[in-house]
Design brief:
elongated, 3 helices, five-stranded mixed sheet, alpha+beta, Ribosomal_bS16_dom_sf, ribosomal protein, 5 strands, about 110 residues
């Protein structure tokens, strides 16, 4: 039986919340799992990562394979390094409005 340590998605639409679970690789992503070993919430600032490293190490010693995303989260927790935040992108429409408002403010200040 191939066992994986992976993310199971929960939460509402466009509001993801993940559980880090140990599951049979043949089970669906959000389906039955063997054990929950942590939680990950990417929406909080800074991102919330809670992992029971003792359980993870025990499962890895038994042959469980963490996915790429879970192995990255485990490394972040082990090293204590903060998760790098991506710069928020604004839409072209919002950028245009901001530029227009800046021009109007500059004209008002010039008068």
């Amino acid at each position: 039986m191939a066992v994986k340590i992976r993310l199971a998605r929960h939460g509402a639409k466009k509001r993801p919340y993940y559980r880090i679970v140990v599951a049979d690789s043949r089970m669906p992503r959000d389906g039955r799992y063997i054990e929950q070993v942590g939680r990950y919430n990417p929406l909080t600032n800074p991102k919330t990562i809670e992992i029971d490293l003792e359980k993870v190490d025990a499962w890895i010693s038994k042959g469980a394979q963490p996915t790429n995303s879970v192995s990255h989260l485990i490394d972040v927790v082990r090293n204590g390094q903060p998760v790098v935040e991506k710069k928020a992108k604004i839409s072209k429409k919002a950028a245009g409005k901001a530029a227009k408002a800046a021009e109007e403010a500059a004209e008002a200040a010039a008068e």
